[in-house]
Structure formats: C-alpha cells, structure tokens
C-alpha cells in the first residue's frame, strides 16, 4: 500500500508540471496578442489618408433650361475622414453667362463643399475673361478666393490686380459680381490708365 502511494506521487507531479507549462503558454500567448492589439499601435500607410477620391473630375451644372451654367474641373478630388470639405488639385472653374462671356478661374489647389456651391481657391488665383463682340479681355490676379458659382460671385481679402487693354488697377480686398460685370476693390486702390491704347 505504501509502495503504491509512492508510485502515484511522481505521476501527479508530472501532470502538475504539464498543466503549469500549458497555463504559462496560454498566459504568454494572451499577453502577446493583447500587446499587439491594444498596445503601441503603429499607423498603417493609409492612416490619415483619403477615404474617397475622384481622378479627372469634371462637374457640369445646368440651369433650369438645360444650358451650361458653370463647370468645375480638377485633376483630383479627395475626401478625408471627418472633413466636411473636399480637397481639389488644380481646380479650374468656368462660369458661362447668358451674354456669351465665359470667366475662367484657376488655382493650384482648393476646397469645396459636397454640392460645389462654395469653392475656396487657395494660393495664387488667375481669372480671365476672353474678349468677344460684347466685351474686352480682362485679367484678374489675386489669391485665396472664395467663389460662389451659383451666384456668379467671388471674394478675397488679399491683394488684387485688374488688367485690361487700357487699365491696370491694384488694391487690397476685392469682390467680383460676374453676372452684373462689376469689380470692386475695397482699399489701397491705385492704378494707371493708358489713353494711347
């Protein structure tokens, strides 16, 4: 009886050692997985990147009679998570007017709302009206311009230069009402008028 008891003791110790080893393995595996999932998480290549994009965007907006009112072209439009605006690369806006005038507005980058009813052109902005039978060519140079294409209005608080065939005017802050062909410079206005042209 004593012999049988001493024979079972080593078997129990072996089983206990096996269970302890398995338990340590489970704990170690759990710790490893926990640190991988909740520890120092490294951002992936797409972290902070765009969640949607459009290449060679070309948006055409028609009026109630089906005529082209304005067009917004961009090399790329991107949307970032949590941002209500869309980012535009090389935006190009064309405002088509009933009198035949077309205003062409470009910049290197910009932002717009989902409906493209507000467009912020950032950095240097170049605005041109090609001449026709009704109007002469006009060139406007500015920066950081807010365009409201449905209203055919654009505004900036920055330095602006207006150049026509006979006139060159500089000022700070400008509002352009393309529909009514009015350009307003708000302050520090100076210019020159060439009567020989």
Task: Provide key terms for this protein.
197 residues, alpha+beta, ten-stranded antiparallel sheet, 1 helix, 50% strand
Structural write-up:
The structure is a single chain. The chain has 197 residues and is α+β, with helices and mostly antiparallel strands. The chain is built from one helix and ten strands, in the order αββββββββββ. The chain has one helix at 2-38; strands spanning 52-62, 68-79, 86-89, 92-96, 102-112, 119-129, 138-148, 153-163, 167-177, 182-193. A hairpin with a 4-residue loop joins strand 9 (167-177) and strand 10 (182-193). Residues 1-9 and 31-46 have low confidence and may be disordered.
Cα distance spanning the termini: 128 Å
**Coarse shape:** globular
Percentage of residues in helical conformation: 10-25%
Order of helices and strands: HEEEEEEEEEE
- Can you summarize the main beta sheet? 10 strands, antiparallel
Unreliable residue runs: 1-9, 31-46
Mean pLDDT: 80
Estimated share of beta-strand residues: over 45%
Give the strand tally.
10
Using only CA atoms, what is the Rg? 34 Å
Please count the helical segments.
1
């Amino acid at each position: 009886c004593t012999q049988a008891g001493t024979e079972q003791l080593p078997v129990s110790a072996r089983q206990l050692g096996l269970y302890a080893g398995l338990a340590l393995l489970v704990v170690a595996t759990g710790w490893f997985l926990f640190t991988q999932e909740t520890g120092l998480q490294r951002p992936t290549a797409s972290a902070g990147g765009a969640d949607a994009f459009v290449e060679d965007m070309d948006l055409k907006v028609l009026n109630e009679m089906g005529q082209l009112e304005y067009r917004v072209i961009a090399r790329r439009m991107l949307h970032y998570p949590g941002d209500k605006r869309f980012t535009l690369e090389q935006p190009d806006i064309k405002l088509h007017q009933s009198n035949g005038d077309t205003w062409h507005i470009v910049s290197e980058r910009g932002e717009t709302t989902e409906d493209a009813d507000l467009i912020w052109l950032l950095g240097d902005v170049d605005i041109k009206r090609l001449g026709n039978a009704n109007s002469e060519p006009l060139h406007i140079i500015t920066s950081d311009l807010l365009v409201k294409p449905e209203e055919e209005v654009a505004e900036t608080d920055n330095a602006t230069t207006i150049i026509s065939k006979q006139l060159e005017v500089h000022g700070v802050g400008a509002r352009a009402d393309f529909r009514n062909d009015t350009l307003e410079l708000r302050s520090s206005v100076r210019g020159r008028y060439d009567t020989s042209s």
